[in-house]
Each structure stands twice: as structure tokens, then as C-alpha cells.
Design goal:
Blueprint: E1 3-8, E2 11-20, E3 25-27, E4 34-42, E5 45-46, E6 50-54
Antiparallel strand pairs: 1-2, 1-4, 2-3, 4-5, 4-6
Amino acid sequence: MTTVRVTGNGVDESVPIESYTLRSLLLEYGYDPGEYQVTAANGAHVSQPVVLTISEF
């Protein structure tokens, strides 16, 4: 996996992945609270988008 595409809440960008496991991704950037769609990509292989909700503590 090389990048993820993050869209929503005023964001539309490809973000490098710092590290990952089968169940989690660590992105280089932080995002404001809101709902985002995240799509992982590795070359021509692209995942289905998933919804990521970030809320304040």
C-alpha cells in the first residue's frame, strides 16, 4: 500500500502512509473532526471507499 485518498470536510488529497497493519493505517497528517471517505491504493489496485468519522475528545 502506498497512498490513501482522503475526501470530505473540505479535504481532497492523496496522503502518504507512514505505516500500516491489517487493521489500521497511520497517516502523516491530522484532520479536523468530521466525516471523510478514505480509499487505499497500491499502483493500479484501489480499494472501495470506507467512511472515517473523526470526533473531538
